[in-house]
Amino acid sequence: MWIAKDWTDYEVIDTGDREKLERWGKYLLVRPDPQVLWKSERKHPGWRRPNAWYHRSKSGGGEWEFFDLPQLWQIGYKGLSFRLQPFSFKHTGLFPEQAVNWDWFSGLIRERISRKKEPVRVLNLFAYTGGATLAAALAGAQVTHVDASKGMVNWAKENAAVSGLSEAPIRWLVDDCRKFVERELRRGNRYDAVIMDPPSYGRGPKGETWVIEDSIYDLVELTAGLLSDDPLFFLVNSYTTGLQPAMMAYILGLVLTPKVGGTVTADEIGLPVTNTGLVLPCGAAARWQK
After folding, report:
1. What is the mean pLDDT of the chain?
2. What SS3 state is found at 192?
3. What pLDDT was estimated at residue 263?
4. In which element (H, E) is residue 259 found?
5. Exposure pattern of 80-115 as b/e (b: 16+ CB <10 Å)?
6. pTM of the model as a whole
7. Which residues neighbour 79 within 8 Å (Cβ) at sequence distance 6 or greater?
């Protein structure tokens, strides 16, 4: 498992009974996690005095219960800063486990720039609030950030501002990812690297539907046409239970390896749990690199 273990402003303190106790900066949150099938004695005082608790509803969805949590606060990671706030379906605007991927591709970008003295062009699809975009930009890349939600793109811009990256070479685009890729192919634009973090299900700005199991192979194949003559990496993330690391590795291997060589690796990504020493699985990723 690839483990995001370098955080100082975030930790999973404890887990049990389909919930996790987390520290986000100085605030403690309890949020549901369906993969936590074990029990906990809940000895940590944070279980009794969290700053906020997201309660799942038996009929689906849920709601926040607030005790002492600001509407907006901020945490940092290796030179980056992120604005957080509780919003729909338990989220805060950041997936901390993705830091293990940021570290991986940031190293590749820095090494390429140091060796070739040329820009690295990165395309980030389904880019959410910009964690991967900012990590790539901080490493020196030119980034095209694409997400169908105007609100998420604006949030990513705010994260860029608090990270001191407002003037970084980032293109911010509100668009359906597949349609954007199709237009880029017609324009003849090319990228050295692709980051793809698709949802299990979603809708584009004009009502376009996305179901990951039905669409991921075709999108990877289509997007592979945007790679430059000397591509650097291709990263695909998944939070869909049925889309296991091996399945994503097969997709990248079948699409990319025959055309451009390179190697594919895939694994779960996770976060260490302070009180138990366990590692909480938080999704999966597949990585192709030259």
Report:
1. 95
2. coil
3. 97
4. helix 245-260
5. bbbbbebeeebebbbbbbbbbbbbbbbebbeebeee
6. 0.94
7. 138, 163
Whether 2-84 shares its CATH topology with 96-289 is answered no
pLDDT given for residue 57 in this prediction: 86
Per-domain residue ranges of the chain = 2-84, 96-289
* Residue type for position 235: L
* 235, β-bridge pairs: 195, 287
Q: Does domain 96-289 have CATH number 1.20.1250.20?
A: no
Assigned superfamily of 2-84: Golgi alpha-mannosidase II (2.60.40.1180)
Under a CB-based contact definition with an 8 Å cutoff, are residues 55 and 63 in contact? yes
The string of pLDDT tens digits covering residues 169-215 is 999 999 999 999 999 999 999 999 999 999 877 766 567 676 777 78
Mean local confidence (pLDDT), 88-92: 90
205-136-280 Cα angle (round to 5): 80
How far is CA 22 from each of CA 26, 29, 69, 214, 259, rounded to the nearest angstrom? 10, 5, 13, 34, 43
Per-residue pLDDT tens digits for 234-262: 999 998 877 889 999 999 999 999 999 99
How far apart are alpha carbons 94 and 128 in whole angstroms? 9
